[in-house]
Amino acid sequence: MEHPIVPEEIQPASSPSLEVDEHGIAWVVFDDPERSQNVFDESVLRRLLDVVRELRSATEEGAVRAAVFWSGKERAFVAGADLSPIESVEDPVEGERGARFGQSIFSEVNALPIPTVAAIDGICLGGGTELALACRYRLASDSPATEIGLPEVQLGILPSWGGTTRLPRLVGLQAALPMLLTGKRISPKKARRIGLVEEVLPVEIFRETVESFVRDRLDEKSAPSGGDRGLLTRLLDDTAPGRRIVLSQARKRVLSRTGGHYPAPLKILDVLQAGLARPVERSLEIEAAAAGELIVSTVCKNLLRVFRLREAARKGTGVESEVEPRSVESIGVVGAGTMGGGIAQLAAYHDLRVRMKDIEHGAVTGGLRHARSLFEKAVRRGKLARREADRKLELVSGGLDYGGFGTVDLVVEAVAEKMEVKRTVLREVEARAAEGCVLTTNTSSLSVDEMAEALERPENFGGMHFFNPVHKMPLVEVVRGRETSDRTVATIYALVLELGKVPVVVRKDGPGFLVNRILGPYLNEAGWLLADGARVEDVDDAAEAFGMPMGPIRLVDEVGIDVARHAGRTLHEALGDRLEPSPPLVAVGDTDRLGRKGGLGFYRYDDGDAKGADPEIYDVLGDAVPAERTSIDQREIRSRLVLVMMNEAARVLDEGIVASAADVDLGMIMGTGFPPFRGGLLRFADELHPRTVLDRTEEYREKLGTRFEPASALRRLAEADREFYEAFP
Ligand code: NAD
User: Fold this and answer.
1) pTM of the predicted protein model
2) Is residue 689 flagged as an active site residue?
3) Helix, strand, or coil here: 563?
4) What is the pLDDT of residues 94-136, one digit of tens each?
5) For a substitution probing ligand 1, which of 355, 412, 444 has the most ligand atoms within 8 Å of its CB?
6) What single string gives the DSSP state of each residue in 38-104?
7) Looking at the DSSP assignment, which residues form a beta bridge with residue 600?
8) Candidate of 355, 356, 358 to mutate for ligand 1, largest count of ligand atoms within 8 Å of Cβ
């Protein structure tokens, strides 16, 4: 079988290798000497094709009776495909050709007339999963490191080396949809349950059990028939009307989850709709054409950029020097409230020992209860075995004294947001902690440098700013104070990574650090829009239509009206007139409304769920809003909200608060849910071009006053015709 789409000029890699044992079992072993993980790039695929052709002729000669696809890497099968071609492809035809290249090789695997087995121990993603799907059998080890997934949708594409075509044919449409549409990985157990793998084998004797599985099937001529799905499942999966129902419901869910901003999941549904009723070969063509279209989309390129930003943060150290971070095995948490309790649970989840301290007995028990309830939830969701959860919970203890603080490696201060209290607490901790212990504060709005002045060893102190709720929010700002040492920054940075979070280094102390500094003007502008007569829902709808996970006014409710007011005041004091709190935010702050936590804010809440904007809110706001609502154009609302953020971000960069435009974007995406499909706040500004951003900001300055005074960095960029990513690389 010849495939003209396989480019012959690509030099094959040395991996995978091929060995045939005495039973006639061929072991195709992936072990890329150049990389820590096996990744499919063109040269590996080229080599795989050669191997498969060798296998075919050896089979015809009777020298090979079965083939096992195996990895030489410890606990890692194949991590996916090399992503660099996706970045560079600008032509859909080229994208389609790339998909056909991979498909053609996997189709040859699929056509081998012998039993073929993917033996999956460790991570198996993307192209790795698609290779496995092309095999007759899949076996998984029971190692916790074994996870199987098709994450393509998260990068704005679809599995297009046969994955979108083969997965639903193997496990049924309904079981395939969540994997294809969310890109989430599944455990071996789940894979077994849906029929993605035949067996889950003990990791300790994986090789032996795989071998014996294969030996039992040496003389098998054809694939066994499919599994035993129930009647209703089969009706929905395997009949045209059933599939129509399933796909149309899935489409509705996708639209409500993504607001239609992400083309890939919708395209996947199109491919399933058109492909499932047709032969595999035709479905593969449809799949490849869809890949070509998606790969050139701006959304795909932006999602890939965001993926790269995350990767870079994950591989970074937070410092330029080579300093070794302190290894952290145990931490102390002072203040067992909302944040302290959450931080304690997160640390224990990642197997650190945690000692909490508070001044209120009730707070300590509350903190422990909070940690327990989060572990309970993890058990209920099947993320953690009961025994594991119990063991981890035991790592947390708490009390009213500093017992245990003498031996911890790092302390997080999370007491009330008051400078004097924090300075006292930090001094107390420093007096008891070991010499090299790293001290951190979780403050949102107070000066890290002012706290450091209270300390004997300010070099060991920095900010570690978690967001609320700790277990959900991926960002942690690592704040370097004037005196903070590289070792302290590197230690906090490494710990953030160990806790599974995304660190962004804030290079110097400043009001609101990075995220809250940019969010402040945005929330305030939402208030000014109300002052101009906009409806609460109109403001929030415009922000959501732009792609924000929640509108700014809902966000004020969510953060807490009291907290938002306090933060707003701090920013105003520090940054001056452009942050003058808008009258509606001042007015609501003067009431006893607290937002969601109090059951009432701009919105009404029932048991924590928002039940629509409170129709009485305009009376409550009194003179701060006009007597009648006016309809303000959605584009106008969106422009005002986005431009104030861009303008503030320009200032943040100019002041050296963070190192690069990429840091701003990563921070805003991870800290506020700024829509990833836009690539980030400043990526979006670059797409508009700083010249346009400046022109529109100036128009608003004319119309609305000095809070839209353009940042000097924005002017400079516009005049020099440069982009943010160019000027702040
Ligand atoms: P909280 O009121 O829920 O908890 C604070 C805890 O500190 C209380 O249990 C209190 O008893 C305790 N405390 C007060 N004085 C103390 C002392 N001298 N020694 C020991 N414990 C003391 O507050 P929170 O929301 O958890 O906030 C804590 C810190 O985290 C603040 O600095 C806040 O700015 C910051 N933060 C809060 C959020 C948020 O959304 N809640 C987000 C990020 C950062």
Assistant:
1) 0.93
2) no
3) helix
4) 999 999 999 999 999 999 999 999 999 999 999 999 999 999 9
5) 444
6) -EE-HHHHHHHHHHHHHHHHHHHTTS-SEEEEEE-STTEEE-EE--HHHHH---HHHHHHHHHHHHH
7) 595, 604
8) 358
